Amino acid sequence: MATVNIGNLTFTHRGDYDGSTAYAKNDVVYYATNGNAYIAKQATTGNAPTNGTYWSQFAAGSGGIWNAGLSLGSAGQVVKVNSGASALEFGTLSSDYVKLATVNASSSSSLAIDGHFTSDYQRYEIHASDVIPSNNCDFFYRVYSGGSEVGANVYNSTSAYWYTDTTPTVSVAGNNAGSQDTDAPSDYFKMAGDDHYGGQPCIFKIVIHDPLNTNRRKMVELMTAFSGNGGSGGVMMHKHGHGVVKSNSALSGFAFYPTSGSITSGTFKLYGIK
Questions:
Q1: N or C: which end of the chain has fewer CB within 10 A?
Q2: DSSP per-residue string spanning 248-267
């Protein structure tokens, strides 16, 4: 049993009260009948904690002292007050921003996040970090519908991008300038208007709205930053764009791939937003 010393007062926490247990002076128990904790005034057996001859109230309510009889919950759960505000319980914290999947690339020719869209969310975000291509390449992505990639000229997009020369010895016209591009209907969305530099990281976020809706097209937003294939790879680029999938079909996920080589490494995380 745990013994706690507070100055001249020493008490022993004995867990839930049991009428058959012999208690000594300064034993502390939790009384489930009213949710209070009590400390024994003298040795006692079979006298309920509400009997003032043998017990004094130590703490009011189940929040006043831990209920040793409360069994452990599952991994990741937390202790919280129940819906009736009458006791403690284990439960899962609710969040409007929920991680649904994590996929790691490892010398992958392509990477898919599919099968996680549900009616629980209308907005989804994919966050990708340290995405490194094996060589200089363009980066593209497509959507999935029913577990299959969607192609056939259904992707339209427009974007603006900015770039800066991070290597002083390399001269890039329009340093820090903004540019824009608009893609005619094609078989994919482009990550950027310039090559990714092989071996250097890329980060990006993709947002898609209401992918399960079958009454209208799907809107997509992209934000990305990467080291471009300019000069010795010293061009830092940032792109922000929007696109539309010209299809009313319900979507189920995304596929990402380089135009050549592979994705050496990178972490892709899918979040649902309520």
A1: N
A2: -SPP-EEEEEESSS-EEEEE
pTM of the model: 0.64
Domains of the chain: 2-91 (2.10.10), 97-273 (2.60.120)
Q: Where are the beta strands (DSSP E) in 17-83?
A: 22-23, 27-31, 36-40, 44-45, 55-59, 78-81
DSSP 93: P
- Token code pair at residue 238: 């940032």
